[in-house]
Specification:
Structural class: alpha/beta
CATH architecture: 2-Layer Sandwich
Helix content: 25-40%
CATH class: Alpha Beta
Strand order of the largest sheet: 1-4-3-2-5-6
Number of domains: 1
Largest sheet: 6 strands, mixed
Number of helices: 5
Distance between the termini: 32 Å
Radius of gyration: 17 Å
Order of helices and strands: EHHEEEEHHEH
Number of strands: 6
CATH topology: Nonspecific Lipid-transfer Protein, Chain A
């Protein structure tokens, strides 16, 4: 049976325990009595917070995706701890944006596009989700020769995917892509 009092939902405040998972700095809902907190493969000092009292569904989804990736894969945790950038993601078909403020081992997720962004990615929801499906190849570079990669590259060339700040920040974009990718 559904328990309406548990879990993060859009526009609902969530009662948190003291800092989430022990010492992680995570803003995750407290576990029920007798329920153990989620287990992750990587011990990380990474911190994930939401700047707004009520993070949007999109902000919660992106923050949760990045947190799960970083906590489950050591190579993503290393990238996360080295990344210092402010990345905006704007989804054109729902007219909603999120700013991911990476601060070398900390992520602050903001509703909306905040000023002084290093990169801004603008695309429809399907394209944004496909970015998380890009495979990462040798040397930590995204693979653009499989079907997902070709689709992303084609949208970039056709202007359906815009990345403001791309040329001076290619290395930052590669790092963000590695962290964001579930592959």
């Amino acid at each position: 049976m559904h328990d309406p009092g548990r879990g993060r939902m859009a526009r609902r405040k969530v009662k948190l325990d003291q800092g989430g998972v022990a010492g992680s700095g995570s803003a995750r809902p407290a576990a029920s009595k007798g329920e153990s907190p989620p287990k992750f493969d990587v011990e990380s000092r990474a911190e994930f917070t939401y700047a707004d009292d009520e993070p949007s569904a999109f902000a919660s989804m992106l923050g949760g995706l990045i947190e799960a990736n970083v906590r489950s894969r050591p190579e993503k945790a290393r990238d996360f701890e080295s990344l210092v950038a402010r990345v905006g993601i704007f989804v054109t078909d729902i007219n909603e944006g999120v700013t991911l403020d990476f601060k070398g081992g900390r992520l602050i997720v903001h509703n909306g596009l905040k000023p002084r962004r290093t990169l801004t990615i603008r695309a429809d929801a399907d394209t944004v989700m496909n970015l998380s499906n890009l495979k990462i190849g040798l040397l930590g570079l995204p693979i653009y020769y499989d079907s997902v990669g070709r689709g992303v590259a084609a949208k970039l060339l056709r202007g359906k995917l815009r990345i403001d700040g791309l040329l001076p920040n290619v290395l930052t974009l590669n790092t963000v892509t590695r962290i964001f990718s579930v592959q």
